[in-house]
Every structure is written in C-alpha cells, then in structure tokens.
Amino acid sequence: MRATILRDDLTALAGLAMPLAWLAAHDGWLLPRLVASVGLVLCWQVVFALARGQGLALHGLVSGLLVAILVPPEAPFWQLVIGISFGMVLGEAIFGGRGRNFVQPVVLVLACLAFSFTDQPWRDPPEMPLAAALPALVLLVLSGQARVTVLLGLAAGVAVAALVIDPGLLAPSPVAGALLLALVYLSADPVTSGATDAGRVICGLLTGGLAVLFTTAGGPLGAVVFATLLAQVFAPLFDSMVVAVHVRLMRRRAARLRNG
Amino acid sequence: MHFPRRSAEAELTGGPIRDLADDCAPGVLGIHGGDLAALRPVVAVAEGQRVAAGQRLLSDRKRPWITVVAPVSGRVSRLEPGPRRGVSALEIEPAGDEAAGFDIPGVPTREGLIRLMVEAGLWAGMRARPFGRVADPARPPDALFVTAMESTPGAPDASAVIGEFLEWFRLGLAALPVLSDGPVWLCHAPGMAVAEVEGVTARAFGGPHPAGLAGTHIHRLHPVAHGGMVWQIAWQEVIALGCLLQTGRIWQRRVVSVWGPAVASPGLVAAPLGARLHDIARGRLADVPLRLLAGGLDAGLALPYLRRSVVQVTALPHRDVPRPGPLRRLMAPARPAFIPNAWDEAAAPPGVLPVALLRALASGDAGAARDLGVLGLLEEDLAALNARLGGNRGGTDYTDLLRQTLNELEALA
Q1: Hey, which end of chain A has fewer CB within 10 Å, N or C?
Q2: Interface ipTM above 0.95
Q3: Of residues B227, B228, B337, nearest to A99 (C-beta)
C-alpha cells in the first residue's frame, strides 16, 4: 500500500545512506554500478507492472542499491545484468511481486552470481566498518521490518556455531559492516524469514549456524547468502511446524478453560 | 498513523447525555437493506400505517426469533420491497407517543424471558459465537458474556452511561442468568462500580484496544475457537432489557457518542434506533467538508441510519481524491501484497498467529483458518488489524475475507 511508503520503504532506503556514503569515498565504480543495478531492477518492475498489474514498489530501489553495495568493485556489468535479471524475475516478479515471494530476491541475485561466475570474487564482501551499518539495524528494527526474533536467532546461531567450529571467526573484521547489512536486509527480510515468532527464531538460528559453517569453505558473504537461501527455503516448513504446535496448545488451553 | 499508537487506554467520550428530541424536530427514522442482510422478512405493517413504539414491523421467515419493532411511534412513510422478497428500505415518520405494552412474567423463566425479548425486538441484540448470528433460543450457550465496556477511541464511556441507567442495567443483568446453562460473565472496565448480581461473575479488563471487545473476553475466559458456543450481549441491550422489565415498554433510546477529527464538540447523544446519523451529529460538527461513519475509525461503515450495535458516530474530514493518472495507475498494484510488520501484528486479536491467519484468509483456505482460530473471531476483532493494513481504504479487506471464510465453515458445520 502507498500509505506504508514512509514507514517501510523510506526507512529501508535511509538505512542504506551511510553504507553508500562510505563506499562512495572508497570505490570509484560505485555510481555506474548503482545506476545499472537500480535501472535494471526498475526495468523489470515496469515490465511486470505493465504485463501483470503488479505495481511499482519503491522497495525495488532498496533491492537495486543492496546489489550495488554487496558486489565487488571490479564486477563485470554483463554478469551483473544476468544475475539481477535472474534474481529479480525468478525470485520475486513471477510470484506476484514483493510480499508474495518466498526467497529474498537479492539473495537469489548474489547466489546466482556466486554460483555461475567463479572468475570473480562474488563471495567476498566489500570492506565496510560496522558503524556504517548500525543505523540500518536500528531503523529496520524500529520500523518493525527486521524482527528482533530473527536477529536474536541469528546472533545465537552465529555465536554457538563459531564457538564449536572456530572461536577466531568472531574476531573483528574489516568487512563486518557489509555482513551486518546482508544479515539485516536479507536474512531478516520480513516477507521471507518466517511468519511466526518461533519460526523466525528457528530460521535465524539455522541461518547463523549455516553461515558460520559455510565460512570455513569460502568467502563470508557467499556463506551468508547461501545460508540465508537455504534457511528461507525451509522457513515455511518451520512455520507449519510452529502452527501445528500452536493449534495443539490452543486446543488444550480451550479445553482447560471450558472445563475448569 | 502507521506507527504504533500510544499504548495507553483509549480516550472515551463521557459527559452529559443530550437527548436528540430536545435538540431538533425528530427526523425520519429508517432501516435499510444493509441492516437486514441475510434476513428473509415477513412484513407486519403496510405503508402509511400508524405504528406504536414496540409494535412489530417485520420478522424473519426462517428464524422467527429475529424481529424488528418500531423504535418510536409514528407512521410508516416508506416501505420499499427489495430483491428476493426482501425489504430494501423502511422509514418511519415519528409522531405521537403511543407505546405497545408487554406483559412482564412474574416469575422469570427461560421461555418467558425469550418470548418477551423476541416480542420486544430485543433478541436481535443477543449474538452467538462462532459466526456472530442472532442466537438460536433453542440451543442454550456454554456461557453468556455481557460486555459492559468499550475500548475503541471515542466510544462512549460505558461505566458512566451505565451509572446513569444503573437500576435498569441491574434489572436486565439479573434476568440474564436463566438463559445460560453455564456461567454468565460481566466484563467491565477496571474502575467501574460493579453491581453484585446473583449468578453473574464480574471480571475487569484493562489496557488498550482490543481490551473492550467481547472477542477478547471470550478468548480469555471461555474460548470458542476450537469448539463450543457462547452468546454475547452488549451493555445497552441489557439496559434496554431492564427498561422493558420495569416499565413494560421498550427503551426508545440508545446512547451514541459523536466523535472524530471533524467534530467540534464531542459528546453523548441519546437517539432512537434508526435515527439519521446527520441528525445525531447535528450541532457538533466542525465547519469543513466531512463524512460520517457509523462505528469507530477502524470498523466504521458509511450508513445513513443508526443501527443496533453501533455506539459511535465518527466524523472524518472529507478530501476529494483525484482520479489517478496513468503513472499513478502503473504505480499502484492491482492487488497489494501483505508485508508482515511487527507494529501491525501488535493490533491482532489475542490468541492467533496473525501472519499465518491473514495468509489463510487471503488464500481462502478455510480449513487452515479454522485451525488458526477463526471461529473465535468476528469482523470487529479483526477491524483494527485490517485498518492498519489498509483494508478499509481500498486494500484487501480482511474482514470481508473473514466473513466469507465463516460462511464457508458455517455451511460445513
């Protein structure tokens, strides 16, 4: 709905302002990359708006910006075009647009790029200090988009898996900002990261644990992306398990209240 | 508007009750087709006929316990047939003050009380959950809920109004226990002086909306989402029953609050059922283009006449919405998708998983919706969440989807 633009889309955009400013100072190719990815995302949205009446969501801008931020500076544009087209169309548009998708389209873009083109460092995040991503975390949590339940699950999953596998993974890293951005915008996306509170915690735990596990075999951004993809594919399963438990508990409660 | 409201208790409308008849010449009273939805009426009056207050106007062909009586005495000035042998409009021009008298049974029995309430048109205020229909007298409920509070912003302060009619309220309340095999719950606001009545258990409910909805009380005390059936009755209907029992005549008034952003002086008005909303709000409105809703901000409907169960008239400033241009039409989705948000989910009725429930409703999955507790809900319980998602402003209307799902489940039951 248009009425939620202020709360949802503009806050998400505002959260990206600091990361963009930081990258603009360190990366000469940021602007052309921004134009290309945002333009392509909007192109696909217009195509589906005309063909299927899906409407142009301002959130497409957020997706385009996120792709531009999270890919490496020397990324070839033709690969980017293929990746964005694949992710935005198959991850979101063919399901009916944002809100009806079941995986985060930006995750699908990055997974497609990392999977298809091994000659580029798609799995490595750009350098970014943690402080640049903190405003995004605060804004998304306050506007009700990134759930505290998912984030708690993520934190617990990362901490437990790192303590088991390699405590050194928790050390401060120059790419921590980009990883936090990916976790907040992609792993904790309100549409795809579970529909019930318990389901969200499980989804976060799985994402965090798998991300740490995958880091032992590749770049950290690739690890977060593939962990998120896997967890979001399983999120509906977790939700239906949680719903089954909830229904059983409510039935039992109803019987207790009626007889007691 | 979309950020969380202050979680303090909603602001209710109190103050002196002004009678509509004191302010202006009584206008035409009406019942419209929308008020009679799902009714197959048997009309008991003819156009031009004089009627006394309490005289039967129509009743339902299949469910004779649903009756509509004249709220005041006057002349039937318009009686328009509707589709499928229905009535699309019935209007009464008030005149005189004859009132039909009813025989009050000395010893209260279940059958006697039901017959009296049906005769006096009061039974239509008794609703059953699940499904929210007028209760079937032949099937006694597991529990009876008397809702003696309001929590929607701007609704009348039930405690204060009940205080004005305390004797009638106690009389009505004392008569109710014969109707139910199970407990009778009186659900009230924390500060209210509770009347001690035999057979009635009082419970206080505090906090923000939806603390004052019968659905919340039923969920807390006797849930029906997974079996069972309860009745609910609103506090004004209890006052009306008390008036009937004491005087032998119907209570010709209901207390309605006039409130909203376009109201200059909010306050309480006592008006007969069927009064025009514009007559009720007259003299209290700001001098701006506005529209009136019967009900609160979230659940209000654009109705011409006051209907039973409406306790509030909300005035909103009216803005002309320009016809969208081509770019705007391209921007707006044909069917906006639901994007979960923590603040919206906070407005969900208690005891449900909001995202899963809304998705089940939107996809028409009645079985999943039943498991998720849809049988314990009525439109009013989902109204706050629906309003936050834009359902009352042209988006997907989840209260409509809820009614469709309930109809489907009722046909299966």
Answers
A1: C
A2: no
A3: B337
